[in-house]
Design brief:
binds S-adenosylmethionine, TIM Barrel, ten-stranded parallel sheet, alpha/beta, 365 residues, single chain, globular, 10 strands, binds iron/sulfur cluster, binds 6-(5-methyl-2-OXO-imidazolidin-4-yl)-hexanoic acid
Length: 365
């Protein structure tokens, strides 16, 4: 089924309109997945999935009131609180994650923002994880510009800060931090030269137009996030959203497909909620264009599928963990020149974009 903007499909654009996102969401399921798979193949190896491991470096007693979160101090979820971990203990966990095949280590803290007292330890963690040869990611709440600069200087590759939902629905979920606060933090991360990981949560009782609103906000950022986590709400007893209605799995897959189309060059992360998903649903998410997961039996505080279950699923689907390739500037240039030469020689237009995109993707990652 044609779209009014079919000619622009696969372009990275920052002028997505409500009408265009609505058109995508309204496509018959098979048409939507066909389009998202085409966009996916033009930009990525469709059988590679980037694999990250999460660690909660400071757990619980968070002053924020995010209604979905087991770590908020506003709700009684029975979670054991833990102070900021020791640097050595974090590095040990990172080394284990690397040995199990993760390429990125994401450290999360239940903070409104990092304090000046804690930041030096966090910077040591970034340096140490980086030295292990892993990509680094942190999610520590709001950042000032000087804090973002310090993290970038320490070698932090990615900062995760989610918009969570649409601006319209946001007030029903969080009251202690504004949407604009989040956008400001993302801007500080960008200004410091780090990559952005930003996405949201599906299944909090939001309407379809809120899901579309979230995706439009992310895609229309001045530069699209390199990584877009799409979380399915993990319902935790004691949080205000513990008994919210389940979402239709096909609606979740649709969100992944629409995210893939709107942010063609970003990694779309099939994030929290996989423990509740069937293998078939996860396979459909990969089909729709998800190409990143959290790997390991724990997210921050809630369960995730066991590593061996994920490896089995990868094997059954012929998926491979994406390898992190570290190249010098000269090597990167050589790969790019080769890609351009191959591109000019290409006779078959079907392979034209894929060849170029594959080579460029291998330079970028
Ligand atoms: N405290 C920091 C912050 O919120 O900025 C960082 C950690 S916080 C746990 C990171 C993200 O995890 C949240 O923005 C939210 O999108 C996601 N998250 C938290 N609890 C969740 C849940 N129960 N289900 C799905 N996603 C969740
Ligand atoms: C993201 O978008 N999802 C991850 C990561 N970023 C930090 C966190 C999911 C947390 C799920 C609830 C928990 O385990 O506490
Ligand atoms: Fe705190 Fe982050 Fe949980 Fe919100 S999502 S309550 S900021 S840990």
């Amino acid at each position: 089924m044609p779209l009014t903007f079919d000619a622009k499909l696969g372009e990275v654009r920052h002028d997505w309109t409500k009408q265009q996102v609505t058109e995508l969401m309204a496509l018959p399921f098979n048409d939507l997945l066909f389009k998202s798979q085409m966009v996916h193949r033009a930009n990525f190896d469709p059988n590679e999935v980037q694999v990250s491991t999460l660690l909660s470096i400071k757990t619980g007693a968070c002053p924020e009131d995010c209604k979905y979160c087991p770590q908020s101090g506003h709700y009684n979820t029975g979670l054991a609180k833990e102070k900021l971990m020791q640097v050595e203990a974090v590095l040990k966990k990172a080394a284990e994650a690397k040995a199990k095949g993760s390429s990125r280590f994401c450290m999360g803290a239940a903070w409104k923002h990092p304090s000046d007292k804690d930041l030096p330890y966090v910077l040591e963690m970034v340096k140490g994880v980086k030295e292990l040869g892993l990509e680094t990611c942190m999610t520590l709440g709001m950042l000032r510009d000087d804090q973002a600069d310090a993290l970038a200087d320490a070698g932090l590759d990615y900062y995760n800060h989610n918009l969570d939902t649409s601006p319209d629905f946001y007030d029903k979920i969080i009251t202690t931090r504004s949407y604009q606060d989040r956008l400001d933090t993302l801007q500080h991360v960008r200004d410091a030269g780090m990559k952005i990981c930003s996405g949201g949560i599906i299944g909090m009782g939001e309407r379809e137009k809120d899901r579309m609103g979230l995706l439009a906000q992310l895609a229309n950022l001045p530069q699209q996030p390199e990584s877009v986590p799409i979380n399915m709400l993990v319902k935790v007893e004691g949080t205000p959203l513990a008994n919210v209605e389940d979402i239709d799995p096909f609606d979740f897959v649709r969100c992944i497909a629409v995210a893939r189309i709107m942010m063609p060059a970003s990694h779309v992360r099939l994030s929290a909620g996989r423990e509740e998903m069937s293998d078939e649903m996860q396979a459909m998410c990969f089909m729709a264009g998800a190409n990143s997961i959290f790997y390991g039996e724990c997210l921050l505080t809630t369960p995730n599928p066991e590593a061996h279950e994920d490896m089995q699923l990868f094997k059954r689907l012929g998926l491979r963990p994406e390898q992190r390739i570290e190249k010098s500037d000269e090597e990167q240039e050589a790969v790019l020149s080769k890609a351009i030469a191959q591109d000019q020689e290409a006779k078959n237009p079907l392979f034209y974009d894929a060849t170029q995109a594959d080579a460029i993707a291998s330079v970028q990652h």
